[in-house]
Amino acid sequence: MLLRTGGDDVSERLLRLLRTTAVATTAAMAAGTVLVLAPPSATAVPDDPTAPGQRSVAELLTDLQRLYREAEEATETYNATEERLRRQRAETDRLEQELARARLSLHDSRGAAGRLARQQYQSSTALSPYVRLLLARDPQHALDQGHVIGRLARERAETVGRLTGDEERTAHLTRAARKALDTQLTLAARHKKDRDGVRGKLQDVEGLLASLSAEQLAALAELEKSGIDRAQKNFMASGALSDTRKPTKGGARAVRYAVRQLGKPYLWGAEGPAAYDCSGLTSEAWADAGTPVPRTSQEQWARLERIPLGQLRPGDLVVYFPEATHVALYLGDGMVVQAPRPGATVKVSPIAANPVLGAVRPDPDGKPLRRYTPPELPEGARDGSDEGFAPTSAQSATERVEGRGRVGTAGSG
């Protein structure tokens, strides 16, 4: 699988920015720095409520989550268009190959028809087969000859029919190939538009992060972490999850694949092996297990079998947000493996790090293993940001960090 590099410039710049600010954030938190929001920059209007220095940490977190969410939605739209474009290219190639074969067959049929016309012209006679039979010295020989003539007539009829059919089929395939190419060109233009949209959203994220001070970034990280811890505690206490279940053979393989990707960077549109986005990780994990699943989180939610959260087993997919714009692979014990967001890496996270929409199972007919030993997690598997892309309406950042976010059930949304 080739790694697409359409977003490398923005994503790598964002990753460098986050690494740089993370060092400053860690130093500030280690020193016990008291949070004082930085004053507005010299170019900002002092009473401008949109200036970073004029907003609370919760408001900044809301803005950052909104930008991340918009980037994720744009990424999944890009992925869906790319998948359609990939299928359309394959269909266009198939039709062109079929058209080439049809044209070759038509050429052969026209050659056969030409030979038939020449033979008819050369053997034409004014006597009918009936008269030739009456005048023949050997009637039996004439009858045998008539049988041959009849067979040749049938072959000629078949040649004409084949020629007519080849002409009609070639004309049909020509129209279909032209239409397929037009569709491919339209999708290619949309693909470029979607790609530019993702780049624009990531630049918005980069711009906001660059405008924040180390103290603000430290406060955001702490607020995010405390909110996730509280949300996870409430989620586990709700009894939504049952006792740990054993995976199927395919589920165990998908889990092992995902664990091997820990620490690799998030990159929009990426399907590995060097980087992943959220649905790129889950689709490749199950492809490695021998069970292909749809490429995008929305299609995974729409087309795979939905299961209650209480029936989750390792390898199942957990889908997040009302629009199903984020997905992770269930690890067990209330934890998932995910590619969270730009600037982050593939990591182990609490299942409630984002608002759960529901869960789906790629292999509903698979039988759980009798024995299962979870893969050993490397050191630092849980390091880094856990949140994917949080909602922006109906649920404020304050509600999220206080752990009061809605937790959906399978089939909701």
Automatic annotation (TrEMBL):
List every stretch annotated Disordered: 357-413
Write down the InterPro entries for this protein, in alphabetical order: NLP_P60_dom, Papain-like_cys_pep_sf, PG_Endopeptidase_C40
Q: Which UniProt keywords apply?
A: Coiled coil, Hydrolase, Protease, Thiol protease
Give a yes or no for keyword S-adenosyl-L-methionine in this entry. no
User: From which residue to which does any coiled coil extend?
Assistant: 57-105
Return the Pfam families for the record. NLPC_P60
Per its record, how is this protein called by name?
Answer: Secreted protein
Q: Report the source organism.
A: Streptomyces lincolnensis
